[in-house]
């Protein structure tokens, strides 16, 4: 879809935080509107048909039936807060929401660089997507203060434990939900 372009490649048309996705981090996916070959999908086509809107929630037809069960299953990235994130984006506006997502991306990169034993990328991506910024900052601060003498394996286990604990307090499950 050669005429489709987007300014903000960190937040998808449909409400996913692409900048926090493992596929985006590995540079397999630039996000919707971010490159040739990644634009021929129904949501981009729909955007063009409705005046090239940046986000589905800006459309007069939102929400459509497409969103009825959108949060039931995940893909490479969690969909659990997809609708909630679109509402938050609408409420905060582009600048504040984007600033929060950029801060989350910095925290995600810190987790991956400092606490990933090679097996925690998906968990860290899900945690950063679903946990509130304050909870993430508190967790990472505690990790940074208390793990300097640990091995990477132990740091990773401690990070996992603290993130799971923060999630449990907020009734969040840090796991991708696949279709069965």
In short:
Helices cover 48% and strands 0% of the residues. With 180 residues, the chain is mainly alpha-helical.
Characterize the structure shown:
By secondary structure, this protein is an all-alpha fold. The protein is built from seven helices and no strands. The longest helix has 22 residues, at 94-115. The radius of gyration is 17 Å and the shape is elongated. 31% of the residues are buried.
Give keywords.
0% strand, mainly alpha, 180 residues, 7 helices
Unreliable segments of 5+ consecutive residues: none
Structural classification: mainly alpha
> What are the secondary-structure elements, in order, as H or E?
HHHHHHH
Query: What is the residue-mean pLDDT, rounded to a whole number?
Result: 87
* Sheet with the most strands, sense and barrel status: none
Number of strands: 0
So what's the overall shape?
A: elongated
Cα distance, first to last residue?
A: 32 Å
Helical residue percent band: 40-55%
Number of helices: 7
**Hey, roughly how much beta strand do the residues contain?**
under 5%
Radius of gyration: 17 Å
């Amino acid at each position: 879809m050669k005429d489709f372009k987007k300014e903000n490649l960190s937040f998808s048309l449909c409400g996913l935080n692409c900048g926090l996705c493992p596929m985006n981090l590995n540079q397999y996916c630039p996000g919707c509107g971010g490159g040739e070959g990644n634009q021929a999908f129904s949501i981009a086509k729909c955007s063009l048909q409705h005046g090239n809107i940046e986000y589905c929630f800006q459309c007069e037809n939102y929400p459509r039936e497409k969103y009825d069960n959108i949060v039931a299953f995940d893909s490479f990235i969690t969909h659990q807060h997809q609708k909630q994130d679109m509402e938050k984006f609408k409420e905060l506006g582009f600048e504040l929401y984007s600033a929060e997502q950029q801060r989350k991306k910095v925290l995600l990169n810190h987790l991956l660089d400092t606490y990933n034993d090679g097996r925690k990328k998906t968990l860290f991506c899900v945690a950063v997507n679903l946990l509130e910024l304050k909870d993430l900052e508190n967790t990472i601060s505690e990790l940074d203060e208390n793990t300097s003498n640990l091995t990477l394996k132990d740091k990773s286990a401690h990070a996992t434990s603290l993130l799971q604990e923060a999630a449990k307090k907020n009734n969040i499950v840090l796991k991708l939900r696949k279709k069965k």
